[in-house]
Amino acid sequence: MTTPRLRPLLDRMGTYKPGRRPAAGQDLSRLASNETPFPLLPQVVAAVSAALADSNRYPDPAAVRLTEALAAKHGVDVGRIAVGCGSVQLVQELVEISCDAGDEVLFGWRSFEAYPTLTTIAGAVPVEVPLRDAHLDLPAMAAAVTERTRLVLLCSPNNPTGPALAESDVKAFLEAVPRHVLVVLDEAYHEFVDDPLAVDGTRLQASYPNLLVLRTFSKAYGLAGLRVGYAIAGSPEVAGALRQVHLPFAVSVAAQAAALASLDAAPQLLAQVAEVVAEREPLRQRLREIGWDVPESQGNFVWLPAGADSDRVAQVFEDHGVLVRCFSGDGLRITVARPADSERVLVAARAAVQPTVTAPVASS
Ligand SMILES: Cc1ncc(COP(=O)(O)O)c(C=O)c1O
User: Fold this and answer.
1) What is the pTM of this model?
2) CA of 345 to the centre of ligand 1 (A)
3) How far is the C-alpha of 132 from the C-alpha of 327, rounded, in Å?
4) Which is the closest atom of ligand 1 to the Cα of 228?
5) pLDDT at site 355
6) What is the fold of 19-39+267-353?
7) Among the atoms of ligand 1, which is closest to the Cα of residue 33?
8) Distance 87 CA to ligand 1 centre (A)
9) Which of 187, 200, 257, 349 could form a disulfide with 47 if both were Cys (CB 3.0 to 4.6 A apart)?
10) CA–CA separation, 256 vs 16, rounded Å?
11) Which residue lies with its CA nearest to atom 12 of ligand 1?
12) 117-135: per-residue pLDDT in tens?
């Protein structure tokens, strides 16, 4: 039977593997997708419910109220904000606005899963620069910029390994990269950062208009299921280009309302973030005591470099009621959530580091 002819590059691409979800009734710690463990606040639920009643209408395609609120929050002109159906949609749009076929997109590896996929789909060429000790290697990335480089994706804190970039290192990188190259700082986990030396891209944009910052409502603001992210561009031209390629009506009425209500609830949500941050370093230290070489993390997750053993270790975690994200052959990413989740993680981590030795059968 003849099948429709599809693009050959699909054969070269992987398929996005979402974190596993528990079956109905299963009591598992869901630590595979860096979501917040806290349910939506009542006022956010109320805003979403009100929005649903209005959902026979298309959403505001320009998300005007949300765009204005974000511009006010960041003290920038509305023309520099672009809103998307999750920040992952903005990554896709960033490749679309910067790359023709064969142009290069540079990023560290391992980093956010979507970077190579979205680059390849667009017909651009992913250029992966290996991490150094779980950190993005900015000097090596600067050295990898070529005539064909159109976009650089810096993830800070880096998903899945955890470290954040230092502001001074990002400045040095931006000095080394030609100003016609669009540099993106993907700060999906920005609100979890407590290192004062870590970069906040919005502080650098006055000097580097080729720098664009991505933020999301999916993590600290707890709206992963509603899908809203945004870009703060260094220049209005870049934000305008994002709006040009934007899929119309991609951010739903409910998502826009939820994001606005969450901005109003920021103090409550940031208090939840503080709980997760307080959990992070003690969990890392205890994992290290058990024998796992967990790098520092500034996100709401920690990285277990289990290498070739990753599949087995992930299975041990699952057997202990903990769903984690397994990157086969490389390591596991574990979301930091509540204290009870951390306790489960530690039990599993101990079991995984000491594979059960079958007791010798006593001879009679
Ligand atoms: C580094 C990074 N960027 C972007 C995203 C996409 O987030 P969303 O599309 O939910 O805003 C994620 C999600 O896990 C992420 O880890």
Assistant:
1) 0.95
2) 23
3) 18
4) 11
5) 55
6) Aspartate Aminotransferase, domain 1 (3.90.1150)
7) 14
8) 6
9) 257
10) 26
11) 188
12) 999 999 999 999 999 999 9
